[in-house]
Amino acid sequence: MPYRLLGPDGPYESEVKGTFGGNNASSRKARVYGRMDCTAARWALDRGGYVARRVFFEDEATAIACGFRPCARCLPDRYAEWKRGGEPGTAEYPWLVAP
Prior knowledge:
Elements: E1 3-7, E2 10-14, E3 20-23, E4 32-35, H1 39-46, E5 54-57, H2 60-65, E6 69-70, H3 76-84
Parallel strand pairs: 4-6
Antiparallel strand pairs: 1-2, 3-4, 3-5
C-alpha cells in the first residue's frame, strides 16, 4: 500500500512511510513539522484539529524544503535554532521562513 507524502514539488506516492508529520496550514508561518509521536500533534488530532491539513514527509530535509518550521514541543532544539533566526535557505539556517 503506497503512502502519500509531500515533497517540494507536491504530493507523491511512496512505498516508504513518512518519518515526520506536519500541519499544512494556509499561513506559511503556521506550517509546522514534527515527529510522528508528537504529543502536541496527537492532542490537536484527538480534538479534531487539522486532520484535513495533516501531511507527511520522508525526512526532515524534505519538510524544510517544503517551507515548514520545527515543532516547539517535540523538536525543542531544532525549534530554538529556527527561533534564533538567520538567513533563510542557507547552510546555517536551512528553513525558508524566518520567525
